[in-house]
C-alpha cells in the first residue's frame, strides 16, 4: 500500500496519464521471478508485542534512565520538564521547517524571537542569532569573525585555553585551516593569556582573539576579571564559551566585557540522544551584529498595527551575494532551539538559578565524599585536594585521581554491572592520564545516588 493512500479514481487517472492499464505494468521491467519473492519471515506480531520487544532491546543499552549517571564531558543529563515534549511535539512546530516566508511562519519566527530575547538576557549580550549546529561549530565561527576583523594583518594569532574541550580544538583546527592563523594555547586565567610574548615588530603579528572556557573541559571556572580589557589592549576580541546552566548562578560573560559568547544549548531542554542533535548558541555585541552567521528575527508591526515577526538579518550565501556571505552554515537547529525556548520559559530566572545551585552543591558534595576515600584525590588545575575537596572552584564537573592499581577505564568496566556510569576516563583524550576520571554531577543526581557511587568506588579498592 502506498505511504499516502489514493482512491481508485486517482489511480486510474495516474495510469491513464502514463498510458498503462494496470498497476502491475509499472513493474514490467523487473523480471517476473523477482517481483514477489517469498520471504522467510516469522509470523507477524501485534503492535503491543512489537512495542514490548523494542522496549526489551532498548533496555539492553546503557543509558541515563537505568543507571546512576555521572558521565558528562560535553553532553549532560539535566532534567527535562514534561511540558517541553508536549509543546514541542505539536504539529505546528514539529513539521515546520522554514521561517523564510514570514506570512506563513509567524509561530516559528516568534519562537526564535523569544529564544533570542531570553538568551540575550542570560548571556548578558545585545544580539543572539539562531543558530548553529553545536557549541563547537559556534565557537569556530566566532573565531572566524575575529580573524575577519583583522583581515589586513598578515600573521594572526588565536589564543585558546589548553583546557578547552579536546573535540572543540579539533573542530577549530578544521574550520581555521584555510585561514592559517597561529594558534597558541595557554594555561590558567585568560587575562594572563593576553601577555603571551609578541615580537618587537608586531605590525603584522596581531592577536585576533582570546578565547576563555567558562568553565573549561574539567569543570574549572577561570578568573575572568580584566580579561576583556587585556584582550582589547592586545588588539583582539574576547570570546567566551560558556555553560548556559551555570549562568543561572554566575555572572554572565557580557558582564565581563565579552565581544562574542558561544555555548552548547543541549542542556537547556534537549535530550542527550547519544550525542545529538545539539544546539549551537552565539551572541555578540551590537557592533558585530552584521558579522555573525545564521539569522536574526526581529519584531515589527503590520499595516494594521498588529505585532508581527520578520527575518531581519540573514548573512548566508543562500540569501545574499556569495562574496558578502559571512558563513555557509545552513541549519538553525530549529527544533532544538524551540525546546530550549520552552525550557527557559518554564524555568524562568529563579528556576534556572535553582538548577545551577543544585548542580553546584551536589557536585561539591560528591567531590567531598570521594576525596574522603583513602587514596582518592580531587584534581583542580595545579592543586590536588584531599580530605574534603571543598577548596576546588568548579561547576558540575571535577577530576578524580584514582588510587594506584586500577585505570579509569577498568573502574568504569567494574562499576557498570552495578548500574553506575562513573564518569569519563581522561585517557581517551590524554593517554598519560590513565588513572583520572572526569565526574559530572547535575540536579538529576540525588544525595543517595552520590553516596552509593562513593561507596562503590571505595569497595573497589578495599
Report the average pLDDT across residues. 88
Q: What overall geometry do the principal axes of the alpha carbons give?
A: globular
* SS class: alpha/beta
List the strand order in the largest sheet. Answer: 2-8-7-6-5-3-4
Radius of gyration: 26 Å
Order of H and E elements: HHHEHHHEHEHEHEHEEEEEHEEEHEEEH
Helix-residue proportion: 25-40%
Please count the beta strands (DSSP E, at least 2 residues each).
Answer: 16
Q: What are the low-pLDDT stretches, counting only 5+ consecutive residues below 50?
A: 199-203, 381-391
Number of helices, counting only DSSP H or I runs of 4 residues or more: 13
Largest sheet: 7 strands, mixed
Estimated share of beta-strand residues = 15-25%
Distance between the termini: 63 Å
Describe this structure in words.
A 7-stranded mixed sheet has the order 2-8-7-6-5-3-4, sandwiched between helices. With 462 residues, the chain is of the alpha/beta class. Helix content is 33%, strand content 17%.
Please render the helix and strand layout as text.
Elements: H1 8-18, H2 32-35, H3 47-58, E1 68-69, H4 82-88, H5 91-94, H6 106-123, E2 127-128, H7 135-149, E3 155-161, H8 166-175, E4 182-186, H9 190-193, E5 205-214, H10 227-233, E6 237-242, E7 260-264, E8 280-284, E9 295-301, E10 307-314, H11 334-371, E11 377-380, E12 383-385, E13 397-401, H12 408-415, E14 420-421, E15 424-425, E16 436-440, H13 447-460
Parallel strand pairs: 1-14, 3-4, 3-5, 5-6, 6-7
Antiparallel strand pairs: 2-8, 7-8, 9-10, 11-12, 11-13, 13-16, 15-16
Helix pairs in contact: 4-11, 6-11, 7-8, 11-13
Amino acid at each position: 500500500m502506498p505511504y499516502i493512500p489514493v482512491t481508485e479514481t486517482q489511480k486510474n487517472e495516474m495510469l491513464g496519464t502514463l498510458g498503462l492499464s494496470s498497476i502491475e505494468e509499472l513493474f514490467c521491467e523487473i523480471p517476473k521471478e523477482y517481483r514477489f519473492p517469498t520471504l522467510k519471515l516469522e509470523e507477524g506480531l501485534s503492535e503491543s508485542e512489537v512495542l514490548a520487544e523494542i522496549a526489551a532491546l532498548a533496555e539492553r543499552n546503557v543509558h541515563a534512565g537505568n543507571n546512576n549517571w555521572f558521565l558528562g564531558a560535553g553532553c549532560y543529563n539535566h532534567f527535562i520538564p514534561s511540558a517541553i515534549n508536549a509543546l514541542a511535539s505539536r504539529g505546528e512546530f514539529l513539521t515546520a521547517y522554514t521561517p523564510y516566508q514570514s506570512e506563513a511562519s509567524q509561530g516559528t519566527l516568534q519562537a526564535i524571537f523569544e529564544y533570542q530575547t531570553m538568551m540575550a538576557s542570560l548571556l548578558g549580550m545585545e544580539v543572539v542569532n539562531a543558530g548553529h549546529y553545536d557549541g563547537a561549530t559556534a565557537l569556530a565561527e566566532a573565531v572566524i569573525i575575529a580573524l575577519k576583523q583583522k583581515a589586513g594583518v598578515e600573521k594572526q594569532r588565536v589564543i585558546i585555553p589548553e583546557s578547552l574541550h579536546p573535540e572543540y580544538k579539533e573542530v577549530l583546527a578544521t574550520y581555521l585551516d584555510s585561514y592559517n592563523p597561529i594558534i597558541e594555547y595557554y594555561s590558567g586565567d585568560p587575562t594572563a593569556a593576553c601577555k603571551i610574548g609578541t615580537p618587537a615588530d608586531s605590525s603584522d603579528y596581531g592577536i585576533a582573539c582570546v578565547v576563555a572556557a567558562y568553565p573549561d573541559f574539567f569543570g574549572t571556572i577561570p578568573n575572568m576579571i580584566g580579561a576583556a580589557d587585556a584582550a582589547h589592549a592586545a588588539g583582539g576580541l574576547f570570546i567566551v564559551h560558556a555553560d548556559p546552566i551555570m549562568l543561572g548562578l554566575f555572572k554572565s560573560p557580557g558582564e565581563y566585557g565579552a565581544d562574542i559568547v558561544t555555548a552548547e544549548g543541549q542542556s537547556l531542554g534537549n535530550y542527550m540522544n547519544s550525542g545529538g542533535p545539539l544546539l549551537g548558541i552565539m551572541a555578540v555585541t551590537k557592533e558585530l551584529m552584521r558579522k555573525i552567521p545564521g539569522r536574526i528575527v526581529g519584531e515589527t508591526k503590520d499595516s494594521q498595527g498588529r505585532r508581527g515577526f520578520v527575518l531581519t538579518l540573514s548573512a548566508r550565501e543562500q540569501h545574499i551575494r556569495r562574496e558578502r556571505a559571512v558563513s555557509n552554515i545552513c541549519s538553525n537547529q530549529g527544533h532544538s532551539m524551540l525546546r530550549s525556548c520552552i525550557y527557559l520559559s518554564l524555568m524562568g530566572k529563579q528556576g534556572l538559578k535553582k538548577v545551577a545551585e543544585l548542580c553546584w552543591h551536589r557536585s561539591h558534595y560528591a567531590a567531598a565524599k570521594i576525596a574522603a576515600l583513602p587514596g582518592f584525590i580531587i584534581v583542580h588545575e595545579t592543586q590536588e585536594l584531599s580530605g574534603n575537596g571543598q577548596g576546588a572552584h568548579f561547576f558540575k564537573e571535577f577530576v578524580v585521581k584514582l588510587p594506584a592499581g586500577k585505570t579509569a577505564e577498568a573502574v568504569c568496566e567494574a562499576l557498570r554491572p552495578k548500574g553506575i556510569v562513573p564518569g569519563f576516563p581522561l585517557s581517551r583524550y590524554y593517554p598519560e592520564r590513565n588513572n583520572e576520571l572526569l565526574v559530572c554531577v547535575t540536579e538529576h543526581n540525588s544525595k543517595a545516588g552520590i553516596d552509593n557511587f562513593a561507596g562503590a568506588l571505595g569497595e573497589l579498592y578495599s
